[in-house]
Amino acid sequence: MSPSPDSPRVISCAEFQEHLPELFGGPAEGVAIDPALQAHLDTCENCSALVRDLRYIADQARLLLEPAEEEPSDNVWSNIQTKLKIAAAGDEPV
Known about the structure:
By secondary structure, the chain is mainly alpha-helical. It has a domain at 13-69. The protein has 5 helices and no strands.
């Protein structure tokens, strides 16, 4: 049975892995990829696991580069104010 003209070409794992930079170096995820790459990704457990691992690593690396969005808790500010008041009263150096 020959593949239909509309079906993507079959590629090997090595050929798929040559295209990894395109998958991770391009625009945001969700952009359509080459149908042959997508077909391989959909059917190859090893390459699917590799892509999952690489996405996880990339996401974790992005988290390291993002500034923290959380403000210090109210307790932190309260402790600072208390220390400043004590220091201003002359009871304890800052």
